[in-house]
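Lab meeting notes turned into a lecture example. A postdoc, R.K., suggested we walk through two folding results consecutively so the class can see how the record format repeats. The first protein's sequence and structure tokens come next.
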Amino acid sequence: MNRLTRIAYLGFIAGDTKPFTIVHQVSFAILLGASAALLSVLRPDSAVGHEWLVSGSVLLIIATLGAVYSEKFSRSWVPNLAIPLLDFLALGLCRLGTYPDGAGLSILAFTPVVWLVTSFRTRGAVIALVAVLVTLTPVSLFGGDAPVDAARIVLALILPVAVVLVSGLTIGLETRLSSVNARLTAALERQQSLTSDLQRTSALLRGTGASVDVGVVVFDENGDTAFKNPAFASHLDTTVKRLAGARFTSNGSGDADTTIGSPTATGTVIDDSAIADGDMFGADGHTRIDPRESPVARARRGERFADELIWVGPQDGDQLALSISSVSWQGHPSIAPHMIVTTQDVTATQQLIRARERILASVSHELRTPLTSIMGYTELALDELENDSRAAASAISSYLAVVQRNSDQLLAMVEDILSAQQTPSNSFELNITEFELAPLIDDVVEQLRSTAADQEVELAVESSGSPTISADSKRITQVLTNLVVNGIKYSGPGHRVTVRTRADALGIGFDVVDDGAGIPAREVDQLFTAFFRGDAARASSQRGVGLGLSLVKGIVDAHGGTITVSSTEGAGSTFSVRIPSRDKGTRP
């Protein structure tokens, strides 16, 4: 569409705007001026009224200039009334100057007629009819030498009647256009309102999706991603780290390509083609899941389910537990059903459940053994009481010693379990005092010498001084006792456990060093996890529920301190505890 066509289009649809005024007037001036000029040239001078043509041309120029500068008028109705009337006068004068050959110029009268009608409706039609009767009809009746008869009157009235008909048609068309315009405007306003509501709803949806820790992804009928939230991308990123060799892509903003479950997808939480070696397991963590039967693949096939638990990652590594649900949703009959898949990271919860199951199994076993021993030796002691002899008394004493040892073991287990209830929130009640560390270490080592001797383990203390520490002496005693007992239990006969006092940039504390079998590197990071027992511990005859080191870390953390471990298989382990130095009177 060229520039002139666009201007013309704008002019005819824009009402009383400047393009409308200019287009109408320029087109009218060109047609009238060109027609009058041709008639004046082609006809003899005696048949042309030059004075009328000049007067009409002047009026035409004035009207055209008025159209060009119509925006200068303070009231828009002034040019819309004055310019068409000047056009009627110019047309009448040009028609008079070229009459009778210029009678055909009358057809140009419909241009100012339409202008007046579109500007003023019925009033414009009346003004146009009067203008035609004043400027054009007299020339038709009285121009030339022909007598005024009935035929001439009829011919003269054809133009006014046509003006009335055209005015009526224009008003009707204008009315219909106004009605259509009103409906379109209302529809546009409704559309704008709906768009605004949609934008608000979309913003609310995305805001809600961004604020929850549940991953949400929506698939359309083609399996393409229609929506995903940041939590879902986070689950994806975590999953990627646990899937060796999986093929994923990311756009660099943390929002990965997540056309999930599709055989041609480049990235997914659990993509049929992205899982290497089938590192995806069922709720038990051991049963491998065929990628074609993964929860997401089933959801893509239209299956609905709730809280499907899977484990992602190698069995001997760090696994991610995901709870996945799938529902079908159709917001409107005209919209194809969508599948909504939610993913929730339940790793911590599942680990707690597993830990609970382990502790129940372990506690039931560990408690049964000493209880059985206590019951058996108590029964033997009761039997010996029937014999009043020195040998019986000696046997009873031996039996009661066994009962006491097993009772102490039971008490230690119960205390560990009760203390474990405080560990998750570090809610240990601390009684902070200042005391010398060396005497506390000596007391603990002295109390455990008989235990070490029974295990044929040598206990030693290496102290370069007696630093003063601000801490809860009872809790620090518990920490040191646990570490030394562990060293004794797992070093084995013929080995040595050494306690060394330490004061460095990290604080004041001690190292517990043994030269036993050491700890496998893969188990070091899990040593302080509640109920964790390494392979060697589970295989040994040493009883325990895996709470000792967890309690140790909880107590140290409650003091604001640190505990670290370094170990080499076959060479032993070192546990280092540091409690930060603090000003007198301050508390952790």
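The second example is placed directly after the first for contrast:
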Amino acid sequence: MKINKINTFRLTTTAFVTLAVVVSSCGSTSNSAAEIGGAKISRDELELTITELSDVGQTPVVDGEIAGDTARSILTALVQGAAAKQLLKNYDQEITKADRDEISRIG
């Protein structure tokens, strides 16, 4: 039963990510890097995340720039996080410390 919920969650998250990427690339001129379920991920948030990852050595920056696929990967991770939050909210669920501990133990 738990596996089925995880698979449903992954499928839903993938659909949200795909939709968000398509919508975000439709030529709008907003300050959003992506939008999902009404929640916006601003360009500033994306840039801050890239900077923070760079500061701890997780993202290679050469001459003040990163590779496009790296930026897309980071944006995808932010969108997945927003999608997960929205999905949990829709089902009136939350991730508990016990959930995190269980995943840490398994993984």
